[in-house]
Amino acid sequence: MQRRFILGSAVVLLITLTGCPPTPIALKTVALSPSPGVVFSYREHDSNSGPCFNVPTYGTGPEVVPPGQIAVGWEDMFVPGAQPFPCNYQQQMLYRGHVQFDLRRFDSIADATLTYAAFQSENQTAGPRENPPQGYATVLGMATGQADYGNGPMWWPYDNDVALPPCRGNSFTPCSVDVSYQSNQWTQQNHFNYGFIMAGPKLDYDSGLPQDNNAQLTWYGNFQLTVLYNPALNPRAPQ
Hints:
The chain is 10% helix and 39% strand. By secondary structure, it is mainly beta.
């Protein structure tokens, strides 16, 4: 009986000192669409060898990417010459994508998840589309601004990169990656919000130009950023 009395007294004392049990924090979730200007950038390295009089023009430009989508990956191109005037044409093209979200209403984010879909992919330059689409992007970085490599400014450099999980499928089976760290870096103004860069699997040109038409290129779309937050800490966010 004495032990039960002591335990009950301790509970009463604890409630007296701490007050009523704390009210659970009601977190809210909002799904954000990208800011206007979901774009992809590309860089190419090409060369001609042999007596070249008519350089081929087909297949030497970037792939067509629908509005709201980005292309990420790489393409090789090799057009062997023919006698009597062989002109070998070689090209390697790298693609990166840029996606940005407006987070100015937030001050502190509990959790953030980036979701997207792989719409189509190819493993041969201008070849048939793979089924199901393969997600070839391997890196998600925080853009550090635009850079000009001789053809005008483009979204290319990044830092704080993380590995992207394997992904395949379409809009019915979206890919996802945790971006809580990146989102808080932006909301707390530790990193300017230039958006995300998706890159890989090749991050730079090969040491020599290819003699093949291989590729690993994916078209991504349906981007969405789902943010979980405490309204009390984010007075400008939806309450």
